[in-house]
Design goal:
Blueprint lengths: L1 H43 L10 E5 L7 E2 L5 E2 L1 H13 L3 E5 L2 H10 L4 E2 L7 H4 L3 E2 L4 E10 L5 H9 L2 H25 L4 H4 L3 H16 L12 H34 L6 H4 L4 E3 L4 H8 L4 E3 L3 H9 L6 E4 H11 L4 E3 L4 E6 L2 E2 L6 H12 L2 H11 L2
Parallel strand pairs: 1-4, 1-5, 8-9
Antiparallel strand pairs: 2-3, 5-13, 6-13, 7-10, 7-11, 7-12
Helix pairs in contact: 2-14, 5-9, 6-8, 6-9
Amino acid sequence: MRATVSQLSLLSANQERLLILVAIVIVWALLTSFNSVQEAHAQSGSEVPLVKKKLIVGTKEAPPFSMKDKDGRWTGISIDLWRQIATELGLTYEFLELDQYNLLEGLANGSLDVVVAELTITPERLNSFDFTYPFYTTGLGIAVPFKEKHVLISIIKQFFSFTVLKILIITVSALLVVGIAVWLFERKRNPEHFGGNTIQGIGSGFWFSAVTMATVGYGDKHPRTLGGRIVSLIWMLTAVILVSLFTATITSILTVKQLETSVRGLEDLKKDVVGTMPHTTSESFIKNNLISFKSYNSVGEGLEAVTQEEIKAFVYDAPELHYRIKQRFQGKLEVLPQTYSQENYGIALVNNSPLRKSINQVLLQTIRSQEWQKTLYRYLGM
């Protein structure tokens, strides 16, 4: 009986050890599996977990990066990039159009999940929300009135300007008045020079006043009466003054137009008032350089102000200036070749977004692809 009890005790102890061993094996297997899953996710670059809700994506009209077509569908460089990223990651979203201020505020307060537009990465903005890696690098451009590149064409255009036309009309009118006055005095007593019918007589008087003004003096026609000679003398003195004024005015117009360039660089901006958009990096740039400026609600409104000479120039992101001028202000405005203050565009995300790493991976793969170069060419032509 005692032997049987001892055997039972030994059997229970062995079973207990076996159970403990099995438990250890199970725990080890679970831990190994969990670590393997984590390593697999780390190697794939995916973050756990990806958000499952519908994302609110803020945007604005900023061609050619974000713009609406005739059907109200958003398109552009930034929009196409975001659509590819969302497709790769299986994200659902809806666009919400806001102005620049509310886009920044929406990210800061969390009412927006993402902003996809023409948004520059800055240290100040990184204090309020996150950015992806840059997908496009550019600079600030300066839009100014168009200046004719060919000097001869510019001179011809200025020669036929309204100012020159007024001078010519005044001169011709003066020649005609003097010609009629001389004809009235000479028509009866000097018919060989100013005779004939009325048209012929006035024509002879006009020719006499013209050659007198030009100091050519062919001598083919000359007055004989006292009245005619007094008019001629007055006209000679007056003509000298008129020719001097005419020459000085034309020279001044052509010289000023050739030397005048509204703005040739950053230093010229400080001499006048320029325009820009509020709550943008271009506004910060202008303030930092102590330049007087006016804010406009849209880029189009600012460019229109340049054409109306309300401001000297408009400062904003160079790609959008090129795009808008090509679409609406061709031949009226141009963008100076140099750019300022390097601008790196990124996709903005709410702080600590679980999507940041995943979006960055797809973004970097995309901007290294040939398709991305085709996208840039399609919208920018370069």
